[in-house]
Amino acid sequence: MISTFKSAILFAISLSTIPAHADFEKGIAAYEANDLPLAYKEFRASADDGHADSQFNVALMFEQGIGVEKDEKEAVSWYRKSAEQGNPLAQFNLGVLYENGRGTKVDFEKANEWYRKASKQGDPLAIGNLGMLHVRGDGVKVDKVAGVALLLVSVTLDNSSANNARKNISGTRGLTPDLIAEAQALSDKMMDGKDLLVPLDEYLKKDEPKKLESKTENAVPKP
Q1: Quick count: other Cβ atoms within 10 Å of Cβ 188?
Q2: Is residue 13 part of a domain?
Q3: Which of 96, 85, 98, 19 has the alpha carbon at shortest distance from 55?
Q4: What is the DSSP-derived secondary structure letter of residue 9?
């Protein structure tokens, strides 16, 4: 089952609410002219000034070796700076790096943290990857209902070939009609709310006693 990773320089219009920085605009122009070292220089100047979208671009250039020597540790550092300012693209990519141990050790709990932040902002790929953490039990308890529900939301928001959510649903073993129906109901609740994490967390809290009860019932009695 495949996680999805964004790989696009931010073009022309800044995606955040932060006003575009002069060096950011120069970086875009240099990138479009295929002068990658100059693009890095300009993005880095505005990134050092705290411009979140420039920080994202610097991170991506380090991650992919665009106009600068590839350095995934630097990518993690710059993604984090941008992500902490609320950039959902950076939050998503940072989650991917933590999930896969690139530029840092594998840390599923941090991957979960950053996927949740990006998911709260409606990023469909982050929602799908968060779903896979729940399906596999990476950094969270295994919960296929929650996982499939998140994957369904992801597909609804982005049905493009760049999104692996549909393939991941098909590849998830042990799905029953009842489980799928429960996941669809949860998915509908998440789509209806302003914050999809609210119904997700409500479900997880309600489901916890059921799992504890099931473990108690299945426990071998002491002689």
Answers
A1: 15
A2: no
A3: 85
A4: P
> Which whole number is the average pLDDT over 195-213?
82
Higher-pLDDT residue of 178 and 219 is 178
Helices 72-83 + 88-100 axis angle, to 10: 140
Kindly report, residue by residue over 69-91, the tens digit of the pLDDT.
999 999 999 999 999 999 999 99
- The answer to whether residue 171 sits within a structural domain is yes
Q: How far apart are CA 93 and CA 87, in angstroms?
A: 10
What distances in angstroms separate CA 170 from CA 24, 164, 182, one per listed residue? Answer: 41, 10, 16
- Identify whether the C-beta of residue 155 lies closer than 8 Å to the C-beta of residue 166: yes
Number of domain units in the chain: 1
Label residue 33 exposed, middle or buried (CB < 10 Å: 0-12, 13-18, 19+): exposed
